[in-house]
């Protein structure tokens, strides 16, 4: 029974690694095809931010 559990855990880990690899490949390919004038993080502030809660 432990071998079936170990096999299913290993299978799930390999599946997750495959999905992450596919996502990384898609990210690289899409980044290469993006026009040069578009930046992904255009709305991220560069300075320190203060959050005020009332």
Give a topology summary.
Blueprint: H1 2-33
- Seen as an oligomer or otherwise, the chain set is single chain
Instruction: Report the mean per-residue pLDDT as an integer.
Output: 80
Strand tally = 0
Helix segment count? 1
Helix content range: 55-70%
Q: Note the beta-strand portion.
A: under 5%
SSE order in H/E notation? Answer: H
Amino-to-carboxy terminus distance: 55 Å
The gross shape turns out to be flat
Rg, Cα atoms, Å:
21 Å
Q: Given the helix and strand composition, which structural class is it?
A: mainly alpha
Low-confidence stretches: none
Largest pleated sheet: none
Question: How would you portray this structure in words?
Answer:
- With about 55 residues, this protein is mainly α.
- It has a domain at about 1-35.
- About 60% of the residues lie in helices and about 0% in strands.
- The protein contains one helix and no strands.
- The longest helix is centred in the N-terminal third of the chain and has 32 residues, at about 1-35.
- The chain is flat and about 55 Å long.
- It starts with a helix and ends in a 21-residue tail after the last helix.
- About 0% of the residues are buried.
Summarize the structure.
This protein has 54 residues and is an all-alpha fold. It is built from one helix and no strands.
What attributes characterize this protein structure?
59% helix; flat; 54 residues; 1 helix; mainly alpha
């Amino acid at each position: 029974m432990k071998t079936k559990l170990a096999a299913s855990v290993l299978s799930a880990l390999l599946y997750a690694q495959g999905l992450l690899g596919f996502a990384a490949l898609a990210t690289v390919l899409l980044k290469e095809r993006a026009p040069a004038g578009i930046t992904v993080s255009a709305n991220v502030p560069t300075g320190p931010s203060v959050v005020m809660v009332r």
